[in-house]
From TrEMBL:
Organism: Dreissena polymorpha
Name of the protein: PHD-type domain-containing protein
GO MF term set: zinc ion binding
Keywords: Metal-binding, Zinc, Zinc-finger
Superkingdom classification of source: Eukaryota
Pfam families: PHD
SUPFAM superfamilies cross-referenced by the UniProt entry: FYVE/PHD zinc finger
Domain PHD-type: from-to ranges: 10-59
Keyword Ribosomal protein: no
């Protein structure tokens, strides 16, 4: 972690002293306590080398679905 990065949830600077996790997709940082869903127990295991895949709220959002345009058969003549 480096101080030039901001946490995505609270927008504070990243500090090496913070308990934080990086999104596996966008690689932005988030405090453990800012709605990550990662417990302190899981975090401690990660710090000992356990691999936990995690995505931030933005990256977890489902892709926007664009409705199909329905054409009426009368318009195709």
């Amino acid at each position: 972690m480096a101080s030039e990065y901001l946490f995505i949830h609270c927008e504070r600077n990243v500090n090496d002293d913070y308990r934080a996790i990086s999104c596996d997709q966008c690689e932005k940082w988030q405090h453990l306590s800012c709605d990550t869903g990662i417990s302190l127990r899981q975090y401690r295991k990660m710090m000992k080398g356990a691999v936990v895949e995690w995505k931030c709220r933005e990256c977890r959002r489902p892709a926007e679905v664009v409705p199909e345009v329905q054409m009426e058969t009368a318009d195709i003549k």
